[in-house]
Specification:
Elements: H1 6-17, H2 46-53, E1 61-63, E2 80-85, E3 106-111, E4 118-120, E5 130-131, E6 135-136, H3 137-140, E7 141-142, E8 145-146, E9 157-165, H4 166-169, E10 180-181, H5 183-192, E11 202-206, H6 209-213, H7 218-223, E12 227-228, H8 230-238, E13 243-246, H9 264-273, E14 276-279, H10 284-288, E15 293-298, E16 308-310, E17 314-316
Parallel strand pairs: 9-11, 10-12, 11-13, 13-14
Antiparallel strand pairs: 1-17, 2-3, 4-14, 4-16, 5-6, 7-8, 9-15, 15-17
């Protein structure tokens, strides 16, 4: 398959964003009320937390975030820079303020929060200037941070996680770039793997993309990806899940399958249903050990007004 260049991705995305889908400006408020800002996080209840805790039977834990550094490819122009410094310790100076000649390291980072393993908040992507719960970008998207829908508003996401191994379903180690899986594919794979998707679940898809491409061919990894079709996103939203994630940088097929809109699953999940998106999840071990059900816990950094955040959720079983 021909690789989709970064320029082509940006061009297609610009075309998509510039095309109003709601010419009459109609917008439907959230089922959680017109002032709601947390969407599917409303599904985190004491009963759900207790249910998820019962899934921990072996005491196993697994980090769902991958390790990133300044070489990690990301959707352009995103990136990061890290510096380790020893403040006020130049020339062999010691810190005597604490009664001993100590030394210490600090770190300074300049980075985009949308790099590597990340959560897309409800203020990340909308359509025709409108975002989740009919919020108009002119009213809340400020240069200094979002005044609504910020990631800092999201409470701890705790619930039942499920893994659907799409690579296994298609009998491959890794799906091809641009290879889409549909609602029917998800249903077939889930049934074959004994996975039932329930209300409030965190649904993760394993495609083999990051395990097989990130290190071996980073340019290809970020230039295309396998993932959801538009109808797959609609199907998952209809199940009232809490979050949808994958071991890819954008969860949807890039380039999209014929007839689909690029990244339109983001609109369906984020804008239309308030369902969070989890990108570049570390699913390899879960797939290898056939861990299809687990307790999912995420407490993201709470930086006021952020659109996205680098995360490291934990799977426990």
């Amino acid at each position: 398959m021909k690789k989709l260049t970064l320029a082509a991705i940006l061009g297609a995305l610009a075309s998509f964003i510039a095309t109003p889908a709601l010419a009459d400006g109609h917008c439907k408020h959230s089922k959680w009320g017109k002032d709601d800002e947390i969407g599917s996080a409303n599904l985190v209840t004491p009963d759900q937390v207790m249910m998820a805790a019962k899934l921990v039977k072996k005491g196993q834990t697994h980090p769902l975030g991958i390790v990133i550094d300044p070489t990690t490819p990301a959707f352009p122009p995103r990136g990061m820079m890290l510096q380790v410094v020893q403040p006020n310790q130049q020339g062999g100076q010691k810190l005597n303020a604490f009664g001993y000649p100590g030394t210490y390291n600090d770190d300074i980072a300049q980075l985009w929060f949308g790099i590597g393993p990340q959560i897309d908040g409800l203020g990340h992507l909308g359509e025709d200037g409108l975002y989740y719960n009919c919020n108009d970008e002119k009213d809340f998207a400020k240069l200094t941070g979002l005044t609504k829908l910020g990631v800092h508003n999201i409470p701890p996401l705790v619930g039942r996680g499920v893994l659907i191994d799409m690579a296994k379903h298609f009998k491959k180690d890794v799906l091809d770039g641009g290879e889409a899986f549909t609602a029917a594919d998800i249903q077939d794979a889930a049934k074959a793997q004994g996975v039932e998707i329930r209300k409030g679940d965190v649904v993760l898809f394993h495609t083999g993309w990051t395990d097989n491409k990130l290190t071996q061919d980073p340019k290809a990894w970020v230039s295309m990806e396998p993932g959801l079709s538009n109808d797959a996103a609609v199907y998952l939203a209809g199940l009232d899940v809490m979050a949808v994630g994958a071991d890819t940088w954008g969860i949807e097929a890039v380039p999209p399958m014929k007839g689909d809109k690029l990244f339109y699953g983001h609109v369906t999940l984020l804008k239309e249903h308030g369902i969070y998106i989890l990108e570049t999840m570390n699913t390899g071990r879960l797939a290898k050990e056939s861990v299809n059900e687990f307790m999912f816990v995420l407490g993201q950094a709470r930086v006021r007004g952020t659109v996205q955040m680098i995360i490291n959720p934990v799977a426990m079983w």
